[in-house]
Amino acid sequence: MQSRWSDLEAQEFQSRYSNHGEDLALRVYTSRLIGADPDLVLHGGGNTSLKSRTRDLFGEEIEVLHIKDSGSNLASIEPEGLPAVRLQPLRRLRDLDALDDETMVAEQRRARLDPSAPNPSVETFLHAFLPHRYVDHSHADAILALTNQPDAEARVRGLFGDRVVFVPYVMPGFELARRAAELFEKSPEVEGLVLEKHGLCTFGDDARTSYERHIGLVDEAESSIQKQLEDRRLLDARPVMAIRDPEEVAPLVRGALAEPTGNPDNPFHRWIVEHRSSDAILEFAAAEAATRLTATVPITPDHVIRTKGPYALLTDPPYGNLEALGDRLRATVEAYRAAYREYFDRNVREKGITRTSLDPTPRVVLLPGLGIFTCGPTRRDAQIAADLAEHTVRVKAWAEMIGRYEGISEGDLFDMEYWSLEQAKLGRRAPGPLEGQVALVTGGAGAIGEGVARTLLSAGAHVVLVDVDGKRLDAVHERLESSACELVEADVTDERDTHYAFREASRLFGGVDVVVAAAGVAEVGELSELEPEVFERTLRVNTTGTFLTLRDALRLLKLQGTGGHIVIVSSKNVFAPGRAFGAYSASKAGAHQVGRIAAIEGAPLGIRVNMVNVDGVFGSAENPSGLWENVGPQRAASRGLAPEELPEFYRERNLLRARVTPEHVGNAVLFFVTQQTPTTGAALPVDGGLPEAFPR
């Protein structure tokens, strides 16, 4: 590991944040240097601070501590992410024998100069009790490989000698701060503190010194480990050949992870799934030591809120039989859940406390030959778990190869997992009704497709938009502005393309729960004048395209085993066909009938299939309906209207005098997929009320 300090960059930060002062600008700079290196910190990990002076309202000079707040990420931190707290009242608290969490947090908040500033880190006292102006704390992988050992202290002293102080494991907070300060004061000349199973602290009176001490110590640890690992394969693993692609297996993993709720109207709690693979991961999963190592606790306690403690490992996966593989996965997950419940019950009993159990679902599943599958309520949560898991398997492998991996005790892990201050870092909001669910929408570049996607995203779903028009897809994606939305360019009339779209959804999010078939085209022409190729092209998109979409949807949903929803964007023309609209009316009627058959066949699998019969959806100025752009001029001419008068004509002809929008269609889809009623095989009109099109 090399220092990435640059005098030029440091000057740029001083110029950029000149109104915050030179010292804080450099604090931001080196914080970002640390945060940008995943071998040091990941996803909100680590802490940095600066001690400086300012004047209060009376003009009196006071000493303050700028400390990373509990929600900031070092890689992108701004000065506001380092709120200032008064140092004197915090330092006085060191004289106390103990300080409970609630009081500790209250005192930290009370010490803020700006009461509206973010909450200071739970490690504030650790930084406050050390005398140095700059303090850097990371969870460096190499340091954790040394300290997650039965003989951690001897290893640290053997490598660093008297240049660091070794601090035995104490749960973060007030007690760790006191212990670290006491040990430091016995050796005040040291360059840093090595916190057992919790990382490294370095310090200095200037930003560069503290940062480069940090890098230097981590580099020594890395070099020592690499020297011990020379000419050795990771854990001497025996490679496993997987005959399945990850996107084939992901729906099985996701189905196994879905937790039954006991509620027939919402039978499963689902998760977004992320897949990762690398040589290191594959070698770890195939190693003989994998069974023991996956059962151990995380490399640093902070990870438990993202990955839980142990990982789930599927040994000898039956890749040749998907049904057997699914059964084994479900059994593995259920065994994990049972073990988690025992872990929870055991700890609350032994500690004599009352707690509400968190969910027992594993966040990390290892499959030899395929890699890691992680899950979370959102894609970001799943990706964070995957990032942490990638580093975890590497560090555990290092630790095992140079000694024997040993994490904190189960009791300490439980305390960390159920620590309210740690759970608060997740910052969870009330979940949307479709949180953890994935929706695939064909015709996603169209006006209706965009409206449906917008509604589903607002309900918490992750969405895959499928369309043959890549340029329009990009424009829709830009307007939606959501990281939970992905695009797949595919033609629903090509079975290879539809299959690819569903595989991509599985690769991106782990599977699919909701499928909205909204792709469609229209042609105008009386039957006596209609060319066969025009009729067949309309059938190919509207009927065959819907059939191919439903076929792949039913196959994937069956494989996943957690039910699901299919909604077909149908048409009022199914019940009230129009003159010179024979190709469209017939094709939509065919798709409608295919949907009704799918409802019959999908019901035993918990799959509901419904139709939304729409009329006169013209879209918006940003995304006008392609269907109406094609047929609108002719439909207007047949009624003696100008094209721009057609939307008003359709509004006036329905009972409610309503203009039907893409968002109205999205609301109808949402009604079905949130299971407001036990309904399948139904057609819901979204047309403002047309008596001739009333379903019958």
Structural class label: alpha/beta
Rg to the nearest angstrom?
30 Å
Q: What is the CATH-assigned architecture of the largest domain?
A: 3-Layer(aba) Sandwich
Distance between the termini: 72 Å
Provide mean pLDDT, rounded. 93
Side-by-side strand order of the widest sheet:
3-2-1-4-7-6-5
Helical stretch count? 25
Number of structurally distinct domains? 3
Low-confidence stretches: none
Shape, principal axes of CA atoms:
elongated
CATH topology (level 3) name of the largest domain: Rossmann fold
**Topology, number of strands:** 20
Percent range for β-strand residues: 5-15%
CATH homolog superfamily of the largest domain: NAD(P)-binding Rossmann-like Domain
Largest sheet: 7 strands, mixed
CATH level-1 class of the largest domain = Alpha Beta
**Helical content (DSSP H or I, runs of 4+):** 40-55%
